[in-house]
Amino acid sequence: MHVHFGFDAVSPTELAELTAELRRNNRPLVVTVHDLRNPHHVEPTLHDAQLGVLVEASDAVLTLTTGAAAEIRRRWAREALVVPHPHVVEEERAARPRPPHEGFVIGVHVKSLRAGMDPLPVVDQVVEVLGDLPGARLRVDAHTDVMTPGHERHAADVEAHLRRLEAAGLVDLYVHDYFTDDELWDYLQSLDVSVLPYRFGTHSGWLEACYDLGTVVAAPDCGYYADQRPCLSYAVPSAQRVGSRAPALGVALRRAFDERPQWRADPHERRRERSEIARVHEQVYADVLATARTRGAVCTS
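Structure tokens predicted for Glycosyltransferase family 1 protein (301 residues):
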């Protein structure tokens, strides 16, 4: 059994029963730790307990970055194999030239407001720096549910604030339902910089998509985004981390504007990487199955 996601609604007790059943039947468990902090949970307690059960019972632990592996070692005394996230955008699309656009476009996508998101301080910091970046503009996207009064996911404070900024001509506001994949790729390539408005998190599939498409990412200094792919780090506005050396978001955006970093995955390298990821998984499965066979032989002898 290989667990990546999907255990949010499973209690630690139920997970312990599952891992015990696997062990009783001599079935190995592999766990890939994508999230050390669940982006959908306001508090970390439940996810910490769930992940602790899985990691401690696993026959092999994988994760995406060296930073996450170090945290796993500190928290559970387990060595995690670092296997990078594969490409998100298919090779044919990732190989296309970026379409030209006017000006310098910074994007903040509010999406449907997961617990780990805090977009308004991020949007305000971008607005503050726009005057120092000639020709720059801020595009803010938000899903219809967040911006619609009466909807169960309506965020009145977010809607009111973004509407005020739009009325003042400070942001280009787009309200829409979920993008299709093609719409999302078009959107990302319409940006020079995509700012991740997270107050906590670990890794990001959005960052991988931007890397495939050549869009620079400004990522907060929580989690291990900077270990995952090239990006600009900034200090989380709403929760300054003790000892953080990350600059304010405005400083990171000025760097993006001045230097115009060209961070884009080579599609051929991504293909090679995907093959290597598959090979590593195959080896991990072979190893844990061999260990299980040995364990089973010992138990029956």
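The two ends are 25 Å apart (CA to CA).
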